[in-house]
Amino acid sequence: MGKKTFTKQDVQAAVWHHTDESSPLVLQCAGKWEDEGKYQYQENILKETATGAFYAFGLSKSGSHFTEYTYSFEWMEDEIELTEVVKTTKVVEVWVNAQ
Q: In terms of Cα–Cα distance, which of 67, 7, 58, 9 is closest to 30?
């Protein structure tokens, strides 16, 4: 696993579902928007079509659904470095009421 650089245009197209068969990236999994007050954050998983590798991409937005949002794409560089990720199983143990 490692890091790889993609164009902002390709990442943005994948996140907004503006892709086709020739697109280098496609959206594999869109995360739920997490509200952190002034900002909201979403973790997305993108798939590189040439290799089948998966990459994490965090997107943030600020604003209001009453007006409009400003997305972090607007202040990102023309190239975005993504970190490769793999899917794994996580086991969680919890205590529950015995009744």
A: 58
Choose the weakest-confidence range: 10-19, 22-31, 53-62, 67-76: 67-76
List strand residue ranges (DSSP E) for the chain, in order: 3-7, 25-30, 34-36, 39-48, 54-63, 69-71, 79-85
Residues 85 and 87: their CA atoms lie apart, in Å, by 7
Report the amino acid identity of residue 47: K
Distance CA 51, CA 10 (A): 15
Report which residue type is found at 31: G
